[in-house]
Each structure stands twice: as structure tokens, then as C-alpha cells.
Amino acid sequence: MMTTLSSAQMVQILAAANATVADEYADHDLVCSQGAVPADLNGVLYRNGPGRLERGGVPYGHAFDGDGHILRLACAGGRVRYTNRFVRTREFVAEAAADRLLYRGFGTNLPGGVFANALRLKFKNAANTNVIWHGGKLLALWEGGLPHRLDPRTLATLGPDDYDGRLRNPFSRVERALSPELPFSAHPRRDETTGALFNFGVLPGLGKNRLLLYRVAADGTMAAPGVHELPHCSFIHDFALTPRYLVFLVPHAAFDFPRVLLGRITPAGSLRVVAGQPLAVLLIPRAGGPARSLDAGTGFVFHIAQGYDRDDGTLELDLIRYRAFPRLDSPELMFAPDGPVLAPKFERLTIDPASGTCRTRPLGTRIAEFPRVAPGGSGPRRYLFSVGAPPERRAPYLTCIQRLDTQTGDDLVHEFYPDLPGEPIPIPRGSDEAAWVLTLVYRAAARRTDLVILRGADLSLQAVLPLPHGTPPGFHGEWVDGACGGGGP
Ligand SMILES: [Fe+2]
Question: In 3D, which of 191, 196, 218 has the Cα closest to residue 377?
């Protein structure tokens, strides 16, 4: 283990980890450097995250703008084959041909100041946040725009997917001109009973801020979107789906649209949470009826691990709450020794619709992000998996995979420090919530990435398979058991 890293060293390692992915591989055989791949681990791990954070020598202004880069790790019979490709969005193809930035991003303005950015409202779809398999389609997701359909075997980009026109903006002509497509979030949820996919999109508008609600049947057919009007602008990244409710954590966030329009600032740079305003829980009954908004305290939530109804009429969310809204445009601030203590940690939020109240209690003490529970099953899952760090670490530098037992409060930890693991993917088998946990680990010294397979029971090492190159730790993905779209493993 290295000695404790300084803030400057952490920033340096993260910068190296986010270097541009130069090569694309197809069905490249990986070889174990430690352990062995379980012979009955059959399926495909898909991952998405930024693979390029500069164009023509100009760095993007924010990690959220990195170009979507998909990894496919097909496991069968003890072998793993690796494929990786960038998502060829229209914007990516145009910028690659020009070898310069042509579009603004969530946190990136074009070089040239106000004159280059004013009134330019066509933002790049980064297609970089999640990748899912549903309704016979593999989709790369980005919360600000359309999903992109990919070939499940080769990862070739087949084009943006508007679900037969359902994701075309149906509102006024002016609104359609500003935003022709509806946003489709990167955190959809499955109804395990019906196989339907639920999702949402936040559409700021002229005087109206809309929360769009989507339902995609198991066969891939989307119903007409529902519309819930938000009382104010907000920034919502994730939600929970229970048998009775759609549940959103809604901060009172505000973009400075005039300054964004005039090109003076990026959307990310203009985003602020209004001081003194609570984080609201928005409950939308799935069976219809009025929505409710309850006070859930303060702070900010990116991710919800799971949500479920209880027999007494309450519902619970296991989520990760930040003490304060993280300044999305200032990673330097987050790594400053005297920077804000954001301390994202697990908690259980109990919501009582009858009394209109919420109460919360901490779950564990460690820093946590990228929470996952095993898919499938009914009712709450016992184990919360996440990337994490010890409670005393101030910088957002997450170096372990951890499993929090919600029944006992015990933490199991597999520490990779100073290396950087990505989101853990638990793979259930029978009644076992996680027979294995898969993650990709960026190795700081070697500047290379490994596929790491941990045993779910104790998070001990099952296998390590070096990729032929380094790739940023990335955001989200999923495991698809067995063959996928006839194309794998
Ligand atoms: Fe996310």
C-alpha cells in the first residue's frame, strides 16, 4: 500500500485515469493474472462512462461531458472476451471529423467566450451515463437527451432511439424549437413483476418545469408519457419505483438560464441549490391520484439504492445523501484541503404518506457512492453494495468496494487504495443475493484497468483480468445473464 496520497496526487491520478481511450478492441481474449473465472459465470457485463475528455487539445469543462464509451465483457465457460467502442452520436462523429469542439456541453463552453457560445442551445448528447438491455434493445443513456441504440455484440451505434416518436417534444412550437427531443434519464427502473421499464426526464420550459414519466412495456413499446408539473426548476438524477409509487428526491435547484443563453456560463456552472429550501420527496401514485410533496430535510441525493413499500402504508428508500449540493463545476474545490465536507453516506428514509412526514436514520458510517443492490427478487435486498472510502476521507477519492448489511449494520470492505474501482455489479444466483461482484479497477501505477471478480460472500478476490489498456472508472452499467440479443456471450 502506498503512503497517504496528497490532494495533488489524487487529482493527478484522476487526470491520468481520465485520459482518452485511444483503441477499440473486438472480442479480445482476456487472461487471468490472478485466480480463475467461475465456469458457471455466463453473461455479459456492459459498462458506460466517459472515454474522451478532450477534443483537438481542448479539455472538456466537466467529467459529465466526456464522450460515452461502452465496454462489453462477455463471460462464458471460464473465458472473458472484451469489446469496447465509443458511442457514435451525431455530435461525436461531427467533432471527430472536424477534430475540434463544435458543441457546448453540460459543463463545457466552446472556446471563444460569449461570441462563440451565445444563443447556441444545441448541446452535445454525451451518451455516457448508463447502458441497459431492455425490450430487445441495448441502449446507451444520457439524462439530457435521447438514448442511443447499440448492437449488443459489436457495440456499433445504430442511432438515436425516440421510441417510435414518443420522445419527440409534443409541447408548444417555441418549446419544440428549444428542445426538439424529450430527455430520457440514465436511471430507469424495472418493474420485476411485469418486466416494464419506468423512467423520467426533467424538461425545463418557458414558465413550466415538467417532470416527464415514461413506461416501456417488456416488449419495448412506450406508452404516451405522463406529465407532472414541478413547482420550480430542479435537478433530478435518479428515482425509486415501488409497487405503489414513483418516488423522486427534488432539490430546489436553479439554473441561471439567461446567462446560459447568453453564453456567459455553462448549465453546470450556473446550477445552484436555493439556500434554505428543503429537499422534497415527491410521491406519485402509480395507480393515479394526486401527487404528494413532503419535506425530507436538506442536502442532495444523486443515487437511490432501493425503494420499497411496507405493510403499514409507509415506504422506505435506502439512499446516499450529501450534506450539501456538490458544486458540479469545481472538482478543484472538492479536492481542496479546506473544501466542503460533502460526506455522501447511506441512510434509510422512511416516508409516511398518511402523516405527511419523513424520518431518516444513518445506515453505516462510511463514505459511499454508486450504490447497487442485486437485481430481481421481491421486497428489499439485504445488502447494499457501493464504491466507498473510510469515514475520515475528505476528498471524493473512492478506493474500495464495500457491502453494507442492512440487518446487522456490518460493513465488508475490499480496499484497492490507491487504485480506483468503478461501480460494483452484484450477480445473484438462486437465493444468494450476490454470488459474485464485478468491478473495473483503474490501476494508478500501471495506468491500466483490470476486470476484478470478487466473491459476494466475503468480497475476497476470485479473479483479476487485465484489460489491454486503461479506461476511466466510468459511471453505470449492468449484467445481462446468458446470451444477450442472440449476440453473446
Ligand atoms: Fe448515476
Answer: 191
